[in-house]
Design goal:
about 40% helix
């Protein structure tokens, strides 16, 4: 079952993020890796900044989460994580498909450039990479991340974004 998260899910979301983020250890630049990958304060900050989390629940247990955040004229997919033991079972795809059905604005997602599995996941679901020049501009416009992360990230966009960008 896919449902919106609530305050009672905070500790579970924190646990899912930091469990699933282990996949990035040794893949992303070492100077960008830290333990925990996302602190409780950072998670609270993201929620305070408007990230709305949705969860995939199985047998009463939250096993995957994905956030959406409206920023200016787009929606960002943020912090998509599935418990390590439940990965590659379609959970992330179901969450992404459900959220995309709800969205009406152009949608962007950023991820680490060396996280090939994450890029392939989004491409499988209809997202395409933007050019390196567009990536930098989009990350500076819609995200609040350090320059080092901008340098080592990619941005993927849905068809709505490409349709609108073709109009300019």
């Amino acid at each position: 079952m896919i449902r919106s998260s609530n305050t009672s899910d905070f500790e579970t979301m924190y646990s899912i993020i930091n469990d699933a983020a282990e996949a990035y250890h040794g893949v992303i630049p070492e100077d960008c890796w830290h333990v925990p990958y996302m602190s409780k304060d950072e998670l609270s900050h993201e929620i305070d900044q408007g990230v709305v989390f949705w969860g995939y629940e199985e047998e009463g247990q939250l096993i995957g989460i994905m956030g959406i955040q409206d920023v200016k004229d787009v929606t960002l997919i943020r912090h998509a994580y599935v418990r390590t033991a439940k990965q590659n079972q379609g959970v992330g795809g179901k969450l992404l498909s459900e959220l995309c059905r709800k969205l009406i604005r152009p949608t962007l997602v950023g991820t680490w450039a060396d996280a090939g599995w994450a890029i392939r996941f989004y491409e499988k679901h209809g997202f395409r990479r933007v050019t390196p020049q567009e990536k930098t501009q989009l990350l500076k416009t819609y995200w609040s991340i350090p320059d080092r992360q901008i340098d080592t990230s990619v941005v993927l966009a849905d068809q709505r974004w490409f349709d609108l960008s073709d109009c300019h």
